[in-house]
Amino acid sequence: QVQLVESGGGLVQAGGSLRLSCAASGRTFSNYVMAWSRQAPGKEREFVAHISWNGDLTHYSDSVKGRFTISRDNAKNTVYLQMNSLKPEDTAVYYCNAGFRAWGPYDYWGKGTQVTVSS
User: Fold this and answer.
1) Are strands 33-39 and 46-51 parallel, antiparallel or unpaired?
2) Helices (DSSP H) in 4-97: which residue ranges?
3) pLDDT per position as a tens digit, 28-46
4) DSSP class per residue in 9-30
5) Which of 6, 49, 54, 89 makes a 20 to 30 Å CA pair with 34?
């Protein structure tokens, strides 16, 4: 089992920045692809970004490419999502994911952290 705990969400004005963190515990963190997904009110959950086990490969959804950066620190068992130039449409609950498949389905999910971007 892997436990994932997200933090860093909050309320920010459009154009601002937030950094989300996801702390993992349990099995060897570096074995897993790590990802972020999000779900806005009334919408389906959507992929945001993923990162390979060693951090060499990353992918982003078109909606966040150029604004968000995913990174990981295997020594700290933590994955990050730096979010810049935030827009109101980025408002959602953000989830941390872990698995063996880059594009999912993912084996483990956190409980999520709320990000709200005001206009």
Assistant:
1) antiparallel
2) none
3) 888 899 999 999 999 999 9
4) -EEEETT--EEEEEEEEES-GG
5) 89
